[in-house]
Amino acid sequence: MSAAKRSPLLSWTVIAPIVGIVVLAFTWGRESETALVAVAAAALMATVLAAVHHAEVVAHRVGEPYGSLVLAVAVTVIEVALIVTVMASGGHDAETLARDTVFAAVMITTNGIVGISLLIGALKYGTTLFNPEGSGAALATVATLAVLGLVLPTFTTSAPGPEYTASQLVFAAVVSIVLYGLFVFTQTVRHRDFFLPITEAGPVTEETHADPPSGKTALLSLGMLMVALVGVVGLAKVESPAIKAGVDAAGFPASSVGVAIALLVLLPESIAAIRAARRERIQTSINLGYGSAMASIGLTIPAIAVASFFMDGPLLLGLGSTQIVLLGLTLVVSVLTVVPGRATRLQGGVHLALLAAYLFLAINP
User: What is the pLDDT of residues 345-362, one digit of tens each?
Assistant: First the structure.
């Protein structure tokens, strides 16, 4: 009875972000001692999990597809803050960190999140169903943004190396923002029905597994989500030297730092997508995967482009040959996955195999 009347303010999802902020205040600017790094890492994981919960509460309140946008924007805020802070700290990999992190996010979302969601959904329900119209539109936008932001800089000739000139960078940033805004309008206003979950019984117009949270609960979660995001960004900054030191100690290439950052910031999306897949909301999982990839490119690159004008050193965005091949194969396989509007465990396994290939080659190029 006492548990039923317990205040929501005493929930671990409320306490964890506050503890994360306290740990951040205590560890900020201190030497990276082993004990402090361990405490900060534990607080970071708890804060990330709390952020997942609060983002899902807000997402459930506003409904699909707005909920997927909440998670995607939250992840992008974390990603941009991490990239900018680590780039500002300098280092031999600072000039390629944005490219490595964004590409890692694209591969993890389009192959990891989508692949594991399709596999889990197919294992539980036999065949997964989703809207090819909405999924195809999202994939087309992701492909355009990826080629514009990550592939073309390798082949342009106005500047030496895989980078854009200032005018080219501004053009790419503006087009990325316009495309992302156009997609959001399509997803939330003009063709919202293309992005709603469907099952064998037909379209799911509302979440029936639980009543939406009250406005007061949603506002509390929104506030705690903001606190959690601040904690995640700050604690990840505290942990970044340990991450870089670990990468160097293991003998991994510098690009592995971007992979580590992407894996960290995409944890909330991954958990939310898996939960949606288990509820037969595969379209929601795909919205999360492609939406995160889209936000990672369409919002992160413009933000990094602006930041690069205030930082020393070049901004290398162009991918190498191995990465371009992996991206091209991912896009081809993704098209073949989304066009039919249904998928089996085979498609999920193929996407996960591509993710495994990417991760293996990232640490063993």
Answer: 999 999 999 999 999 998
Q: Do 196 and 65 touch, CB atoms closer than 8 A?
A: yes
* pTM, to two decimals: 0.81
HSE at residue 301, side-chain half, CA atoms within 13 A, is 37
Domain residue ranges in the chain: 9-363
Beta bridge partners of 343: 128
Give residue 163's identity as a one-letter amino acid code: E
CATH superfamily of 9-363: NCX, central ion-binding region (1.20.1420.30)
Are the CB atoms for 119 and 348 separated by under 8 Å?
Answer: yes
Q: Tell me, what's the pLDDT at 129?
A: 87
Q: Tell me phi and psi for residue 342, to 5 degrees.
A: -150, 155
Q: How far is Cα 139 from Cα 343, in angstroms, rounded to an integer?
A: 16
CA-atom Rg of the chain in angstroms: 20
Please check whether residue 301 is in contact with residue 149, taking contact to mean a CB–CB distance below 8 angstroms.
Answer: yes
Assign 3-state DSSP to the chain and report helix, strand, coil percentages, each to 5: 75, 0, 20
Q: pLDDT tens, 317-338?
A: 889 999 999 999 999 999 999 9
Q: What's the count of helices (H) and strands (E) in the chain, helices before strands?
A: 15, 4
CA distance 348 to 170: 37
**pLDDT interval class at 231 (50, 70, 90):** confident
Q: Provide the CA 355 distance to its chain's centre, in angstroms.
A: 15
Structure tokens at 203: 């379209």
| List of residues 6+ apart from 24 with CB closer than 8 A | 40, 43, 231, 234, 235, 238
Give the H/E segment covering residue 20: helix 12-27
Cβ atoms 14, 221 nearer than 8 A: no
CB 165 within 8 A of CB 318: no
CB 120 within 8 A of CB 274: yes
* Whole-number Å distance between alpha carbons of 129 and 199: 6
